[in-house]
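Customer escalation, tier 2.

The customer says the design service returned an amino acid string that "doesn't look like it belongs to this structure." They asked us to rerun it and document both sides in this ticket. The original structure tokens are below, unchanged.
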């Protein structure tokens, strides 16, 4: 992979992560200011959902990779 390609992929990742983090900050503000949760509880919500996501992505990916395509025997 050439240097230009690495920079281009990296720029896309930076943009995606910036928008994702912006959404996370807004959600944290909503949890603490509007719902009245403490910061530690709101952080725990994020932690639990990230751990759940890691395991569910792996599980669903494994299921999809091992299924037969329709029409094949």
């Amino acid at each position: 992979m050439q240097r230009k390609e690495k920079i281009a992929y990296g720029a896309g990742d930076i943009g995606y992560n910036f928008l994702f983090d912006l959404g996370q900050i807004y959600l944290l503000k909503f949890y603490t200011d509007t719902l009245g949760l403490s910061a530690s509880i709101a952080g725990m919500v994020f932690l639990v959902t990230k751990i759940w996501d890691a395991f569910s992505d792996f599980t669903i990916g494994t299921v999809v990779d091992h299924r037969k395509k329709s029409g094949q025997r």
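Tier 2 assessment: The sequence is consistent with the input. Residues 19 and 59 are 27 Å apart (CA to CA). The chain has two helices and no strands. Sent an explanation to the customer and offered a walkthrough call.
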